[in-house]
Structure formats: structure tokens, C-alpha cells
Amino acid sequence: MGIDFADIGKSIANVLAIGLILGAGLPALFAVGIRMIATGTASDDGPVVTHDNPGLRFVGYFLYAVVGAVIVLGILWITRQTLYHHMGIQIFPASAYK
């Protein structure tokens, strides 16, 4: 019975990938959403002139919704045992409760 360094390396790579996706990817999506909603250009005399583009505004709000949904799912995942124990609510499949 020895140490399986391949499995350890694979586990570390999985944690790193998820950390990069959630740690850098979600803030990046939020920033892109802000950029999509706040489209505008600066005129020569300084003030920002906005150009309402409904398509970009929709994309921005959609990205906000994706980020919000991931945050809510993360909170539900963290509290899944408490919700199940105290209220009997089973949000995720039964295999997640073992």
C-alpha cells in the first residue's frame, strides 16, 4: 500500500482548475457584464455619451444572472446537509448526502 502520486497530482489539478474557474472566471464574467451594460464613448469635451444597445444590455444582464445563479447554487451546496437535517429539503441528488 503505497502513495499514488498520480492520483494526488490529478486531485491537485482538479482543485486548481475549479479554483481558477470560480475564483477568476466568475469575477471576469461579472466584469464583462458590467462592460456590456455600460457601453459608451467619451466625446471630445469630456462627458460620456451612452449608446443604448439592447442586445449588449441583455447579454450583460444574462451574465449577471449566471453569476448570481452560481453563487446561489454554491450557498445551497454548502448548506445542503443543514437544509436536509432541519427541514427535510433535499435539493441535490441523494448521492450528494453521503
Measured distance between first and last alpha carbons:
26 Å
Tell me how many strands there are. Answer: 2
Anisotropy-based shape: flat
The largest sheet has its strands arranged as 1-2
The total of helices stands at 3
Taking pLDDT < 50 over at least 5 consecutive residues as the criterion, the unreliable ranges are none
> Which class of secondary structure composition applies to the elements?
mainly alpha
Give helix % range. 55-70%
Order of helices and strands: HEEHH
- Radius of gyration, rounded? 21 Å
Q: What share of residues are in beta strands? A: 5-15%
Query: How would you state the average pLDDT, rounded?
Result: 85
Summary keywords:
98 residues; mainly alpha; 3 helices
Description:
This protein has 98 residues and is mainly α. The protein contains three helices and two strands; from the N terminus they run αββαα. The protein is flat.
Structure described in brief:
With 98 residues, this protein is mainly alpha-helical.
Map the helices and strands.
Elements: H1 5-37, E1 40-42, E2 48-50, H2 54-78, H3 80-87
Antiparallel strand pairs: 1-2
Helix pairs in contact: 1-2
